[in-house]
């Protein structure tokens, strides 16, 4: 869609990913004039920031973008990269959002009753603004990376594609979240020597008692729990559980990888004199991940017992391997390490937002996307409202809630605002 910039919009959406497109879908349904500003290209993260063997971790049936549910023949399978891109591309075409690609937003401020939005294509005003740029704006790489030997190739997960892109030799993967563990597995299956640096990421079974764990958790109601439930307010900062949908889905067990030759370490504490340094907490990290694994299975056990469901017998995971020591350093030259993959997550970029909507951690203060400033909304964040808020499962539900609120706000606005919204 080729657009020319208007001086004023009833709503401005910042970010052209699944959250921004979902917002546009509902804005269209309300007949609210709007524009979507996208710094790069629509849904570019799915196209440009995923490795070749990437696949969904949640089953296909959880793909529930607005008016665009999964329509394939394998609802309990896991779409691979090309299938995901095709699914997203169909959604992009269906929404046909008024997007200005290659347009960076540099400033959002409130001027009187309106919002002033500065972009690389010019300035516009708006009655409302939806911030849909997610928490995954900038790769987070520790400063210790600067002290690695120059000859070592360093990549963040967004730049990793496959084992063949790396020079021969051993690879260090720093970070044991979903991406780190899946990339470590990708390298391991390709026969590469992998040194895996663990953190506090929990893990989850893929299948348990005859079904995908996600299916059980859906039945239990885990995906309906909101961030306002007791003990859930800190969930937005949690690391995702590691498992995979690869080859039909399976557990990721770092202990099993260790038996097969992968070297495991505790959290990285620094780099000095050609060595990577670690805290002596490998056993603690593995044990904590297994406690979550067994805890989720125990939750399912209780559900099965309470409902009287006929299912295969319960089980408890017992460690396949235990570290005999706590390695505190890795000599990169001695171990022929030629590459480091930083699976250390992302940091948000809210620098363009000149509005007082953030808490002390830099996270927007909001309730299901509605901030304390009239006309300002956020979308697409992990645990914005539920477990699925940042994903295909529930981003559309949150977008519908936000746009309904926005429509009511415009409808109740002062005459000057209603006049501006009709231009």
Automatic annotation (TrEMBL):
This is MSMEG_0569 family flavin-dependent oxidoreductase. Keywords: Oxidoreductase. It holds the Pfam family Pyr_redox_3. It comes from the Bacteria.
């Amino acid at each position: 869609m080729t657009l020319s910039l208007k001086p004023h919009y009833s709503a401005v959406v910042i970010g052209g990913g699944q959250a921004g497109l979902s917002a546009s879908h509902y804005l269209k349904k309300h007949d609210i004039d709007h524009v979507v500003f996208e710094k790069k290209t629509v849904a570019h993260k799915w196209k440009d920031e995923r490795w070749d063997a990437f696949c969904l971790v949640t089953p296909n049936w959880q793909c529930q973008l607005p008016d665009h549910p999964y329509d394939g023949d394998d609802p309990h399978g896991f779409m691979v990269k090309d299938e995901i891109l095709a699914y997203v591309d169909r959604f992009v075409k269906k929404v046909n959002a008024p997007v200005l690609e290659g347009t960076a937003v540099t400033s959002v401020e409130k001027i009187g009753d309106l919002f002033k939005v500065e972009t690389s294509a010019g300035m516009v005003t708006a009655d409302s603004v939806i911030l849909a740029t997610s928490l995954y704006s900038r790769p987070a790489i520790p400063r210790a990376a600067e002290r690695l030997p120059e000859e070592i190739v360093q990549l963040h997960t967004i730049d990793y594609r496959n084992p063949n892109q790396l020079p021969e030799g051993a690879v260090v993967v720093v970070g044991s979240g979903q991406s780190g563990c899946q990339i470590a597995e990708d390298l391991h299956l390709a026969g590469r020597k992998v040194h895996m640096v663990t953190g506090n990421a929990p893990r989850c079974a893929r299948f348990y008692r005859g079904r995908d764990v996600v299916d059980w958790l859906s039945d239990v109601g885990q995906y309906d729990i909101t961030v306002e439930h007791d003990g859930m307010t800190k969930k937005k900062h949690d690391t995702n559980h590691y498992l995979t949908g690869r080859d039909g889905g399976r557990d990721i067990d770092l202990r099993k990888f260790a038996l097969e030759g992968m070297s495991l370490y505790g959290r990285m504490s620094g780099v000095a004199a050609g060595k990577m340094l670690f805290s002596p907490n490998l056993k603690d990290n593995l044990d904590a991940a297994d406690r979550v694994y067994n805890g989720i299975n125990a939750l399912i056990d209780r559900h099965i017992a309470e409902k009287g469901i006929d299912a295969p017998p319960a089980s408890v995971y017992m460690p396949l391997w235990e570290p005999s020591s706590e390695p505190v350093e890795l000599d990169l030259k001695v171990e022929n390490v030629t590459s480091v993959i930083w699976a250390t997550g992302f940091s948000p970029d809210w620098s363009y937002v000149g509005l007082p909507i953030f808490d002390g951690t830099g996270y927007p203060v909001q309730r299901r996307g509605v901030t304390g400033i009239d006309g300002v909304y956020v979308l697409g964040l992990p645990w914005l409202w539920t477990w699925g808020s940042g994903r295909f499962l529930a981003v559309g539900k949150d977008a519908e809630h936000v746009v309904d609120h926005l429509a009511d706000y415009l409808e109740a606005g002062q005459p000057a605002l209603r006049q501006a919204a009709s231009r």
